[in-house]
Amino acid sequence: MDDLELKHRDHRASKPATGTGHELTPKDGHGIKGAGKSTALPSDRTAWVVFFSLLVDLLAFTVILPLFPSLLEFYASNKKDWLYYSIMQQVNTFREFLGMPDNERFNVVLFGGFIGSLFSFLQFLCCPLIGAMSDVFGRRLPMMLCMMGVLASYVVWAYSWNFTIFVIARIIGGLCKGNVTISTAIITDVTSTKNRGKGMALVGIAYSFGFIIGPVIGAIFAKRSSLESGNPYLLPALFAITLTVADMLFVYFCLKETLPKEKRAKSLLSQFRNASQLLNPVSLLKFDAVEIRSSKEDLNTVRGLGMVYFLFLFFFSGLEFTLTFLTHKNFKYSSMQQGMMFFFIGITMALVQGGYVRRQAPGSEKKTALKGMASIMPAMVIVGLAKTIPTLYMGLALFSFGAATVVPCLTTMISHHGNADQKGKVMGIFRSLGALARAIGPIVSCTVYWSVGPFWCYFVGALLFMIPMRILVKLPAEKK
């Protein structure tokens, strides 16, 4: 999702933005020290360091996705693992309640959905806190600590001979994976409002390529893994560990601190004084942990962007989750064919982010985000009605365009708000709202899908995108 020039780049250092006209102030009332000072930072180089670090991180993170069927088969062989059978019982109860067929692939999707929702919920809890920490200690130290926590989760995964230990590994990873929040704060530190959209687009491109290449590598591991080996996940776990260690070394030697000491929040205690406001969904939607200094209109803009982001990902993640059910039911897609479908979505998103989003003029983010949401509405209807493969992929192309444009544009818009000593907190709250949406969206959408059928699920889902669009339209235009 990054707008940085992939070719013909200029290597000049640029100064971090110290104010945008939309000023938010921490609850403790402390302003920014040294507001009149400016520190030259290698923004172009730093953005690319962030890009490659995120890409490596996501390759390690996504390698597990194709392994879920073999992992579940392995853990099912352990008859004494009470947690596995307890969760599987709940999954079966949920499946029977919805009237879903007892299909092995559907069971795997539901089980994987549970693990994914757990991870997203943990991200909802930790992102605002990690973002606030980065405002106090700078970006580099919290980034390294998060990577150490993620590394620990992969080490536990390598030794997870039963499902309970595996879940512990995912919990550690979910609580520590704050590098994306910090990365967006770093991009905000080293870019101006003029080129920030390009930086945010680069984060999106890293995401797209990570979710393309990582699962392919995981599929190779899945093909070679077998229960006879005694440990079907040891090699992919070691692969993830190796990548994470390499990423840590890369960040340690290549990433310079982007938040000077004179621009940091005064103390961690002041940041966490109202910790409940960083964990309460209602408080997060209202951005209660920060306070507008300039005008009420700016506060309403920040809240509006948070609501748009939450609603968009709530509807989007739910419909995305049910694609597996739809394509298997209507087209008898195998796991390999579904993998190719998501590969197509990822490639399309990367092309849109690299060739379209990064070329958008500063101040056009709102218009581009509206275009993205508008494209998803017909996309969902086409996918829900599709009877042929070409029609399905036509809908998926529109779907991919929307997915590639909305999130980076909204992230760029929210990054224009807040002073340097609270960018991490603002970006952390923003990402926390998205994580909460991804935690509950699939459950709601899955319930609707199996209760009223795919057509009404996708048709009503398409119409619901009008809600975040309506909110976004009413928000003030971004200053160019």
TrEMBL record:
SUPFAM superfamilies the record matches: MFS general substrate transporter
Membrane topology: Multi-pass membrane protein
Subcellular location field: Membrane
Spans annotated as Disordered: 1-40
InterPro entries, per database record: MFS (IPR011701), MFS_dom (IPR020846), MFS_trans_sf (IPR036259)
One GO cellular component, as annotated: brush border membrane
Record flagged with keyword Transmembrane helix: yes
Pfam entry (one): MFS_1
Domain Major facilitator superfamily (MFS) profile: residue ranges: 46-480
Gene3D superfamilies: MFS general substrate transporter like domains
Listed GO MF terms: transmembrane transporter activity
Keyword Membrane: yes
TM regions (residue ranges): 47-68, 108-129, 141-159, 165-187, 199-221, 233-255, 306-327, 339-357, 392-414, 458-477
Keyword annotations from UniProtKB, A to Z: Membrane, Transmembrane, Transmembrane helix, Transport
Name the record gives this protein: Major facilitator super domain-containing protein 10
Organism (species): Desmophyllum pertusum
Organism classification: Eukaryota, Metazoa, Cnidaria, Anthozoa, Hexacorallia
